[in-house]
Amino acid sequence: MSHLKPEESLHFLSEVLSILHSTHEPERVLSLIVDRIVRIYGCQTCAVIIIDPTTEYLRVFTNHNLSHHYVKEFRRSLGTGAIAQMLSTGKPIFITDAERDPQLAIEVQLEYSFRSAVCLQVSAELRTLGYLYADAREPHAFSEQDLRLLQSFADLTSITLNKSYLYEKNLRLDKIDHETELEKYAPFLERLSASISRAEESHESISIFILDIDNYKQIGGTYGYEASKKVLKEIAGLVKAHLRPMDSAGRYGFDEVIVLRENAPMEAGIAFAEELRKTIEETEFTSHGIRTTVSIGIAAFPTNAISEKELLLAVKEALYDAQRNGRNRVVHL
Predict the structure, then answer these.
(1) Are 252 and 295 in contact (CB under 8 A)?
(2) ∠ CA(326), CA(327), CA(332), 5° rounding?
(3) Is 186 found in the same domain as 156?
(4) What average pLDDT score do residues 101-129 get?
(5) Residue 54 and residue 107 in one domain
(6) What confidence score (pLDDT) does residue 278 get?
(7) I want to staple 50 with a disulfide (CB 3.0 to 4.6 A). Which of 68, 130, 237, 313 is the partner?
(8) Which residues contact 164 (CB under 8 A, 6 or more apart)?
(9) Rounded CA separation 33/15 (Å)
(10) Of 109, 137, 168, which one is at a domain's C-terminal end?
């Protein structure tokens, strides 16, 4: 049973809200929630159990006092028992003394036996996300009055998980790779597919090329990871500056940029790529004055391929040829 004064409970809740406001990392917030519940009630075990959206099994998200092996092996179906009912109805499971209801205690127990326990539903926007679990070695460790404070922690858990889900969803919807400010590869592929369809209908040519930074790892080893990222971003910006409004560029790999040139046959693509290669070779990047070169592979539709898959295979083969033949060059098939 908690012996906290109301202002102390409010302080703990305010702590959680402050962290929740400042981060998109649910682990930090939920670890703090678990820690504060343990401190308030002297729990033997406390855990946030979530429904894994990919498997629809319950798994441990974060906890206090569960063994690593137990957490790793924990995989519990929703079933039709007390946990399933609590998750469905939202009515808490409240065990004041396990010896009075040993069957229920065994059903909700995690790794260790207990004398008292509570389970509270975690849900957001009419969607059940999991539950908050706490137990203690002593009977009557939690009172009816404590349920109000524990429900507040459960509600904060709901907000934290829902915020994380929404943030991840927004990242998936975001079409921009913010390390380079280029398109992510998936939306670039959609644009490429549409471009091929238009070119086929209008009997036009398009060219694509992949640009690879020749000594990217060495830059990171010499100047540090942040400097290498800045080089990549500056090169991406230079590529964008050379594009026409109808063209597009995306991030292809760790240090690679893929470019689509609309209504551009192979000859025009080669000229553009060679100009870009030379510009990069002559440019100093970042405040360190870093110099680098790029290898570029080019392929064109319909010269080298008549489908998106064939075009991508062709441009990758051209890039590999550029790398195998000494780098700092433009190669086409």
Answers:
(1) no
(2) 100
(3) no
(4) 94
(5) yes
(6) 96
(7) 130
(8) 24, 25, 26
(9) 9
(10) 168
The pLDDT of residue 171: 62
- Higher model confidence: residue 110 or residue 54? 110
Domain identity same for 158 and 254: no
Number of domains, the chain? 2
Each residue of 275-315: pLDDT tens digit? 999 999 999 999 999 999 999 999 999 999 989 999 999 99
Could you tell me if 140 and 95 are in contact, meaning their C-beta atoms sit under 8 angstroms apart? no
Looking at the fold, whether 110 and 55 belong to one and the same domain comes out as: yes
Residue 230's domain comprises 176-332
Helices vs. strands in the chain: H and E counts, helices first? 11, 12
In 28-71, at which residue ranges do the beta strands (DSSP E only) sit? 45-51, 58-64
Strand 206-213 to strand 182-183: parallel, antiparallel, or no bridges (unpaired)?
unpaired
Expressed in percent and rounded to 5, the helix, strand and coil fractions of the chain are 50, 20, 30
Query: What does the longest C-alpha to C-alpha distance in the chain come to?
Result: 84
**Could you tell me which of 221, 227, 225, 219 has the C-alpha nearest to residue 293?**
219
The whole-number pLDDT of residue 70 equals: 97
DSSP 245-312: TT-EEEE-SSSEEEEEETT--HHHHHHHHHHHHHHHHT--BTTTTB---EEEEEEEETTT-SSHHHHH
What the block records as the tokens of 120 is 């509270």
> Encoding tokens for residue 311?
């075009």
Distance (Å, rounded) from C-alpha 228 to C-alpha 231? 5
Cα distance between residue 313 and residue 329, in whole Å: 19
Q: How far apart are alpha carbons 147 and 153 in whole angstroms?
A: 10
Asked whether residue 1 is assigned to any structural domain, the reply reads no
The model's pLDDT over 210-241, given as tens digits with 9 standing for 90+, comes to: 999 999 989 999 999 999 999 999 999 999 99
Determine the average pLDDT of the residues in 322-329.
94
Q: Do 304 and 316 meet the contact criterion of CB atoms below 8 Å apart? A: no
- State the number of CA atoms in the 13 A half-sphere of 132 facing the CB: 30
